[in-house]
């Protein structure tokens, strides 16, 4: 009954994104980056449910990057055990390097690069050719405005992209899903979450863009969905590559 409640807002758009962009093929070994936040826990749950009923057979492996904040990731471990998915924790010193050694005034970029590098390397070591990331529609819109306002360029978060250096393909199955849907879903299904320990959380340029989009939605109801349609209809193709 609870799943049916999220049919149009979660299951349908996630399935649509996967099918439209041919994200998953027969026999795929997919690493799911799981931080313990609402987005990644929802992604893991959704892909695991889809795996049970999909005619396309694929395998999931959850990977959590321990940034070195000293936060327990046991809730992720227990959740993966309960739903029958293998889980790997990668211990790193990313937080001490970024905050203590480098003392980065704008730490998000370096942290993201190091975290993603650790995730991609681990995925390859585990035999995974694809990495699933939990970016939502709100993330895609915020990224668009970030690149426009701060980088003076137009850049869209791609549903699927190939990293030739790492030889892994990134997929974003939740890219058509609203953040508010993910929030409601984690509450309804009582998914265990790990609080983000980063001192920069909620104090970033991305948070500014999030508040901007909230304001736009209040003034122009439905603007997120119209922006998604604009992304899909973007031309030339390098803005949003079609399969």
From TrEMBL:
The keyword Transmembrane helix does not apply. GO terms for molecular function: transferase activity. GO terms for biological process: tRNA processing. Residues 29-208 form the tRNA(Ile)-lysidine/2-thiocytidine synthase N-terminal domain. It holds the Pfam family ATP_bind_3. Keywords: Transferase. This is tRNA(Ile)-lysidine/2-thiocytidine synthase N-terminal domain-containing protein.
């Amino acid at each position: 009954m609870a799943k049916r409640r999220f049919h149009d807002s979660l299951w349908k758009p996630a399935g649509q994104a996967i099918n439209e962009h041919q994200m998953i093929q027969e026999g795929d070994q997919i690493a799911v980056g799981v931080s313990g936040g609402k987005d990644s826990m929802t992604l893991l749950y959704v892909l695991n449910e889809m795996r049970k009923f999909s005619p396309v057979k694929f395998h999931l492996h959850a990977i959590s990057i321990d940034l070195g904040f000293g936060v327990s990731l046991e809730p992720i471990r227990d959740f993966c055990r309960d739903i029958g998915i293998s889980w790997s924790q990668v211990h790193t010193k990313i937080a001490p390097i970024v905050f203590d050694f480098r003392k980065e005034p704008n730490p998000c970029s370096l942290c993201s690069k190091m975290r993603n590098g650790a995730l991609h390397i681990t995925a390859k070591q585990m035999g995974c050719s694809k990495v699933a990331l939990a970016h939502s529609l709100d993330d895609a819109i915020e990224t668009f405005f970030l690149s426009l306002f701060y980088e003076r360029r137009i850049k869209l978060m791609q549903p699927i992209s190939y990293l030739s250096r790492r030889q892994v393909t990134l997929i974003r199955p939740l890219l058509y899903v609203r953040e508010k849907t993910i929030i409601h879903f984690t509450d309804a299904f009582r998914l265990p979450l790990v609080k983000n320990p980063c001192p920069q959380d909620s104090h970033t340029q991305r948070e500014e863009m999030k508040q901007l989009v909230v304001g736009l939605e209040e003034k122009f109801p439905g603007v997120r969905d119209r922006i998604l349609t604009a992304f899909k209809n973007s031309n030339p193709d390098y803005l949003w590559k079609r399969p």
